[in-house]
Amino acid sequence: MQFESESANQAQNNSPNSPTRNSFIKRFSRRSFLNRTTMLTATGVVAGVMGSTVSSFRKEGVVQASGRDVVGRFNYNRFVDRAYRVRLEAARLERSFPIPPHPTNGDEQRYANKIGSDSRGLPHNQRGEVNLEAYNSLTTALNRQDPSLYEKIILGGTRKLVNPQGPLAISLEGINAAQIGVPIPPALASAARADEAVELYWQALLRDVSFSKFQDNTDDPNVLAAVDELNRLSAFYGPKINGRVTPQTLFRGTVSYVDPSDRSGGTPRHVTPPGVLNGPYISQFLLRNIPWGTQYILAVIRTALSGNDFLIDFNEWLTVQNGGNSGRSINYDPTRRYVSTVRDLGEFAHIGGALYYGASLLLSSPVSLRDPLIDGGIGAPLNPGNPYVNSRTQVGSAATFAVGHLQALLNLGTSRAIRASYWQKYYVHRTLRPEAYGGLIYNNLVNRTQYPIHPEILNSQALARTYSKLGTYLLPQAYPEAAPLHPSYTGGAAVIAGVNVTLLKAFFDENHVIPNPVVPDPSDPTKLIPYTGEPLTVGGELNKLATNYAIGRGHGGIHWRTDGAAGIAIGEEVAISLLRDERLGYIEDFPGFTFTRFDGTRITV
Predict the structure, then answer these.
(1) CA 42 to mean position of chain CA atoms
(2) pLDDT tens, 270-312?
(3) Among 271, 184, 186, 194, which Cα is nearest to 232's?
(4) Residue 219 burial (CB < 10 Å; 0-12/13-18/19+)?
(5) Distance of CA 65 to CAs 29, 33, 38, 41, Å?
(6) Which of 283, 277, 78, 105 lies closest to 182, judged by CA?
(7) Within the chain, what is the greatest distance between any pair of CA atoms?
(8) ω before 431 within 30° of 0 (cis)?
(9) How far apart are CA 549 and CA 275, in angstroms?
């Protein structure tokens, strides 16, 4: 009722005859008149339409010059009023969605020393336990949300926390972050957390293995060892075929939703999106040069040389936990190549590239008749529900229903999805990063601490092989700075992937088969060769693009599988809400955006 009352007052203040609106008009009418006169005069000179300057404004707001109605009989008031009513309806619609439960794994309350919570960037003792005064300065700022208190957070080094106030910004479009539920992340002491760590240690061990070895006929002993161990874990939920991890499913992505049958809002429902297990590990959208007008963006990347592993020394690890700089840097391969190894994808996910904007260019560009593997697009049709697909007289533009419209939403969606993810990071979960979990393992095995780490990681082959290879129990990082200074759950890169891929599926035909698919040449990854397996669709390869990017952060050692899986689902929800609001503003005869969600169900927005 309060919302309706406030809306009524706003409507009264914005009505044409309200005192507030009239006062506003009086204060700005002279400036508006001069600005409009200047603009319209210039337009008349350039276009040759107007023979003189604007002489008057009609009472209803239509501009006249030389006695002629220049812009036509358009009801400005009705147009402006419709804009107001659409915005009001969008606000009411988004507010109508209930706020779901937001349960946590309880680790912050469970451990007085905060070993289960993210504390990187704050000062720590010699074992890596956070200074509690500093941790309290962080949580006080987060709880009271006073901008001045964020400036009083006690840091341990020169690195700064990443945007803790950002998720409190109110978005003028789309759903509010508090209206999106995510599953409870695994608790510190759980088998599920340990099993995710086992996968991460294997990802680090296999960084220099080619994805061409991730096939069911592989003879790579390390790939087979990873598959065998993951199959013996009690709580591993990565992709499987007939209940088993295989080389073909190894390190492929998943998405996690809240199970709707659980009213507490905490139980996860894990799915493997359509297309993610089909064909090559790497999405076609990461392997093709991107046409961009008269230019194109090369798909070959700058990647790291073998042996670039960081935070394997405890002092280096502690320096980074305190927010310091290790002074080390990545040694890059001087030869650029296509994404072909675990390390390559981790480095691509570290820095990024054209990604989703690039995907929109690839999808909308025609197939090249000259050299489709080098400079051609995919030539995908627009979504069959697009109102201009079958129009006899019109096409879309950047205003509505063309690629320019989509590209504007991609940029907007990225910002809004990050707000939703960071809200979960800072204001709900504050989950520790994998690198910090590795520090707990190290302390248990080297310093004989008794941190509650599940034995499935402590007794794993992945951990034993890491020590044998690198002489450390710490989780090897692919980046010298390790993870960004914000909590782990949910993944920011993953929500960006989720929102962008969902928007792309809403605008293009998901069922279109991608022409001329390729894979890197296993013997020379600076070259591509044709892929000749099962057909690859736009929808499947977009889903694969999202999971490649999310799991790629795990290849770098900085995110749990959970982070990416839940993050993609958040991004999807944000995209749906943006499309819902967008649709309210259209006048086209349009039944809605129809596409396939990451869980395989169809939706019309």
Answers:
(1) 44
(2) 999 999 999 999 999 999 999 998 888 999 999 999 999 999 9
(3) 194
(4) exposed
(5) 19, 14, 13, 10
(6) 105
(7) 92
(8) no
(9) 15
